[in-house]
Amino acid sequence: MSSQNIVIIGGSAAGPKAAARTKRLDETARVTLLQKAPELSMATCGYPYYIGGDFDDRNQLIATPTGVVRNEAFFAAAKGVDAKVNTEVKSIDREKKTVFYVNTQTHEESSISYDKLVICTGATPRRPPIPGIDLEGVQELSEMGDADKLRELRDSGKVKNVVIVGGGLIGIEVCEALAESGMNVTVVEMLPQLLSFLDWELAKLIEKHVKSKGITVHTENGIAHFLGENDRLTGVKLQDGSIIPCELAVVSIGVVPNVSLAREAGLEIGDFGGITVNEYMRTSDPAIYAAGDCVEIQNRITGKKTYAPYGDLANLEARVVADNMVLGDNSIFPGTVNSGICKVFDMSAGSTGFSEKNAKAEGYEVITATNASLDKPGFMGAKLLVSKMVADAKTGRILGFQCVGPGEVNRQVAEAAMAVMNGNTVYEIGVADLPYAPPFSLAIDHFITTAHILENKIAGRMTGISNVEVKERLDAGAEIFLLDVRSPVEFEEMRLNAGETLIPLGTIRTSLDKLPNNKDSEIITFCKISMRGYEAQRVLEANGWTNVKVIEGGIMAWPFKVEFKA
Amino acid sequence: MSSQNIVIIGGSAAGPKAAARTKRLDETARVTLLQKAPELSMATCGYPYYIGGDFDDRNQLIATPTGVVRNEAFFAAAKGVDAKVNTEVKSIDREKKTVFYVNTQTHEESSISYDKLVICTGATPRRPPIPGIDLEGVQELSEMGDADKLRELRDSGKVKNVVIVGGGLIGIEVCEALAESGMNVTVVEMLPQLLSFLDWELAKLIEKHVKSKGITVHTENGIAHFLGENDRLTGVKLQDGSIIPCELAVVSIGVVPNVSLAREAGLEIGDFGGITVNEYMRTSDPAIYAAGDCVEIQNRITGKKTYAPYGDLANLEARVVADNMVLGDNSIFPGTVNSGICKVFDMSAGSTGFSEKNAKAEGYEVITATNASLDKPGFMGAKLLVSKMVADAKTGRILGFQCVGPGEVNRQVAEAAMAVMNGNTVYEIGVADLPYAPPFSLAIDHFITTAHILENKIAGRMTGISNVEVKERLDAGAEIFLLDVRSPVEFEEMRLNAGETLIPLGTIRTSLDKLPNNKDSEIITFCKISMRGYEAQRVLEANGWTNVKVIEGGIMAWPFKVEFKA
Asked: Where are the domain boundaries for CATH 3.30.390.30 in chain B?
């Protein structure tokens, strides 16, 4: 294992991690890092917060926790790694185990031989072939220079109107950053919803919140043309024909793995366009490993390949690569459950595993539960969480969990990620021993309650109906006895106003005569979060009604209009 | 299953949960709840926050999330439960399946027969036989009336000095509540540390923080006498002879299960003094279940019985009881991993599984790692976390995790609780896919990094030494080459001042001549958090030194005095 020549292509996340870990495992290894960009070890995920002015010192994006900039000198001195920036790799000769590269400043060409090579070439923003995309003012957010440029535009105060193309994670983060600096922001998304890792009805709650911040959101719409004058952007024309004037458009519609080097070297490329690696993160060439946004990895739930360009996974993959290069293939990277989280103004949105639509697309027969409840006791300044749990209908195994709201989403999604990775069932989570104290959670943690609801559904005790289905059926004029079991005060303050009857839960046992005589009539109950709705269902069923359902998540999870007190 | 008479003794946490769930499972059941106190469904864990003035409306402690007070009328109307407050159960006749009770206001005696009985009699504060404990001014915090009294004393402004007897969870919460209302607070604890669920060196970081808030802390000391005049408390005399004047003493040295009724009825009582129940939460009498602070449950790691009086577990146990009473014994309560969390002024402290000392006491051969690092990237206003992971030395299975600091302890301990329950190893956590974005966590989550450190220790790559051991050996005059590898600027600002040599990591490879010639000399490295300390260890070992160790957690986890820049 000693004195290997290790060459690493790429110096953002995976590359530097692989380099530093390799040296820690084997100080005698000669590690060379070839980086095309001028910077090393950039905190790419931090760009939106730099752009938005959360901090002003750009160097914080490339510095250690104690403030030392991670430049070539740092890598040489502190890590024992020979890092070369502004260095673009042109080709890999696998026969000769040699990498050819050029300095992008001096144009000097060189080569270096390797015993082991690591490809960490990352991903490139998806660039749609839309007329006008080359106009000045159409901007991506990929390199640090892009972040610099957007920050400069923000500081200049010159941009009044910006269109964000793509309502995914990065689009939403940039939307927030630019809106908070005073620009008029419009988000244009091709799909029917923002944040596609969420199911529609949870994404709609996020969309409501985004709109409440003055953002215009167009879903199911795309850019037909970027319009310009004198090579400068002046607006965008949408696919529906409408025109939005703007001086800046930020295109963030996802990324594609950067695999041209690997492909040209003859390495195997997978169905998602990423480099194929095995469980040891080794490519089809035994001397070459790969990690980060350029590879395909395994989905831990299905065992199938997937593309998961997350910064945290890049680091973990790179660590496995270093282990295997130095110690022989002994360390396995098991893949992803697609855990992610995102700040959206005063709310957060997170997800792990599959959404309902993705689970169904994978062929699972699923059952879901929606839970709207507080994150801690009301007297502790609690905030709302709306979650949806997706489980295998037969086994109760948790396949996914989404959570949005102003409350503490972070802990909820982290717990769920652990559950999904461990293959836990709703029954196991229903008796989980999680840390509790009033400043931190409810006595029965929101995640556990969600499992309880799903357990009740699986057992047939609670018959839920999604708010989307209720709305569709109401819109279609279905005959439903809609039963609001909240208090008159709550009803006064806010209501669905969809022809509902108000019978507070506390009076339901003595108000059965107000319900439809026909015991087979469909009755749909609800309350604020639908705990009382469920209790009402149980009482009605005990009294002979046979077709009672509960709107899951109640009014708090209702993604459509509600009527407020005038 | 229909029309059972269900009688439940106790109306705090477990009782009301069992009652409500029973009705939801079987509306035909006649459920009677007998509650000694005047209140029902009290959020006991919220008392310290009420006392401290986090909120002013006492009713919030006994209200639903929508503000309805859960009194007898509420239970009757909304839950279909016949709840009787001020009702003390005097005896249980198991032969006749009858419970005898008395109204504490009217002294009227009654009885009720049951098909199934649930005992949720909770726990009582431990009351040491110390002279003067009956003086006015010596207060417990158990009942809602105690909370009322302490809140009243706080509001009155009449108490200047208070002594908290016991530095456990409740003691510390009350300490914060009263200190923030302007009282001079002294905490007296018999053990060498506060918060005994932590290992000493982490508890010491909490103690430092508590002291920084102006609290006086006496450890390894107890109350010898409560001193008084005219039956009123005037001070306490400690076991070391010192006297602390005070007008109020709050005794919170733990609780004992309240089992006199169960014992008199001949039910089996366990070694910890709690009611013995099986996995279905059934007592030694098939018609009687029990839940909450009065029972012993299983430790999920060891499989042995333990006593775990936590509010969240009481609720989960009660839910299992209801299931089993209505549906037959089919729902299992697996027990506890002792997850807990606590706010301590601007810090939090949490734990799950075993501390190092408790794991050793259980007979485990353990290996531990301490990790001091930020909770998210520095540019996002990150805060410090100091954690300690305890694993089985042979298998790497995580047996426990503790975390303290101003950072986001909540998510960390929740993740760890999930890991401990699932029997995860450090290797599994080392490749976990947890949600990441800069506002929420580091790219490699703190919990994962802690697993990485422990993995490195198990593999023999990192040789750690605890700060406690270093301090002991320094105090004993051991010859150690203490090597600080931070930058000169950091050294200038804060240092151990224990005879250390400063060689910044970036110069270590060119400064080997400054190290002891004898390659077997003991060298102990450290930095701010000990990442660089570890890197230095790797470099020194690669250069032939054979006895290099790293102070775990670095200066940030150092629980002793450090020297700051003048």
From this structure: 351-458
Question: Pairing relation of β-strands B481-484 and B501-502?
Answer: parallel
Question: Which residues numbered 513-532 in B keep a CB inside 8 Å of some CB on A?
Answer: 528-529, 532
Rounded mean pLDDT for each run of 10 residues along chain A, 566 residues in total: 87 97 96 98 96 96 92 96 98 98 98 98 95 97 96 95 97 96 96 97 98 98 97 97 98 97 98 98 98 98 97 98 97 98 98 98 98 95 97 97 98 98 98 98 97 97 96 93 96 94 96 96 94 96 96 95 86
Token pair 């035909």 is found at: B28
Segment (H or E) for B373: strand B366-374
Q: Hey, are the CB atoms on A49 and B433 less than 8 Å from each other?
A: no
**CATH 3.50.50.60, chain A: domain bounds:** 5-46+53-123+256-327, 138-253, 340-458
B 346-385 residues with CB < 8 A to A: 348, 350-352, 373-374, 377-380
pTM over 0.95: yes
Region B5-45+57-123+256-327: CATH code: 3.50.50.60
Q: Of all helices (H) and strands (E), which one includes residue B290?
A: strand B288-290
β-partners of residue B9 are: B34, B119
Instruction: Inspect the interface and report whether the beta carbons of B415 and A414 lie closer than 8 Å.
Output: yes
Write down the CATH number for the domain with range B464-564: 3.40.250.10
Note the CATH number of domain B351-458: 3.30.390.30
| CATH homologous superfamily, domain A5-46+53-123+256-327 | FAD/NAD(P)-binding domain (3.50.50.60)
- DSSP for B200-260, please give it: HHHHHHHHHHHHHTT-EEE-S--EEEEEEETTEEEEEEETTS-EEE-SEEEE-S-EEE--H
